[in-house]
Design brief:
CATH topology of one domain: Aminopeptidase
CATH class of one domain: Alpha Beta
Bound molecules: coenzyme A
Radius of gyration: 16 Å
Number of helices: 5
CATH superfamily of one domain: Gcn5-related N-acetyltransferase (GNAT)
Order of helices and strands: EEHHHEEEHEHEE
Structural class: alpha+beta
CATH architecture of one domain: 3-Layer(aba) Sandwich
Number of strands: 8
Largest sheet: 8 strands, mixed
Distance between the termini: 30 Å
Strand order of the largest sheet: 1-2-3-4-5-6-8-7
Helix content: 25-40%
Length: about 180
């Protein structure tokens, strides 16, 4: 899906734009993703793992989201990518009512309302589709992300123990959360 640009005002009074990225912005998106991974231990790919991702595969990823029921919504400010949310859908029919959410904001913009603006818009857009459930997974110790997901009505539905093995050898469990876009019996 492709979302047209809308302007938002962040908590610090500055303006930013939300829209779906173009395939030609793949390098910008890769820089953003690698940057986020260096700023938080709670993203699955390490910065060196991002180095192995080619511009071509990022182009394909953007194209796949633009040309399907999946969604990419990116926050731009002054030509920089400062945040992104994705909702990835499968073509498998039995799971097509669910979309898997991924979100990250560059550290310099944390707590300025970017994550909230991305969620507000993506939930509004998701409600216009046949999506019934938004799924997400997070490191159980990621209290900042959990607070955001709680605020947008996600509920914890499970926990996978020992899901992540950190560089220091310690394990962190993974929380599974869902937001229901319709009422289930
Ligand atoms: C999690 C993340 C997406 C939040 O984005 P953000 O733009 O900072 O979010 P917002 O500013 O819209 O909202 C953050 C909320 O969390 C609250 N918060 C911040 N730090 C917190 C903490 N340690 N504990 C609890 N709440 C916290 C803020 O007060 C704010 O709540 P409010 O809107 O009610 O005031 C961002 O911090 C991020 O990208 N982190 C690193 C990557 C990551 O963890 N991604 C999620 C992977 S599952």
């Amino acid at each position: 899906m492709v979302f047209e640009a809308t302007e938002i005002v962040l908590k610090d009074g500055t303006r930013a734009v939300l829209r779906t990225p173009e395939e030609s912005e793949a390098e910008l998106m890769l820089d953003y993703a690698a940057g986020c991974s260096a700023e938080s231990p709670y993203l699955n790919r390490t910065p060196d793992e991002w180095k192995g991702v080619t511009v071509e595969s990022e182009v394909a990823w953007i194209r796949a989201h633009r040309d399907s029921g999946s969604m990419l919504l990116t926050c731009f400010q002054d030509g920089k990518v400062i945040g992104n949310i994705s909702v990835s859908r499968t073509e498998k029919r039995k799971m097509a009512h669910r979309g898997l959410v991924g979100i990250a904001v560059r550290k310099a913009w944390w707590n300025k309302g970017v994550g909230s603006a991305l969620f507000e818009r993506i939930i509004e857009e998701a409600k216009k589709t046949d999506l019934e459930i938004l799924d997400l997974a997070l490191y159980s110790v990621n209290t900042r992300a959990k607070a955001l997901y709680d605020k947008f009505g996600f509920v914890t539905v499970g926990e996978t123990p020992y899901a992540f093995k950190m560089e220091d050898g310690k394990y962190i469990s993974e929380l599974l959360m869902q937001k229901y876009l319709k009422t289930f019996d």
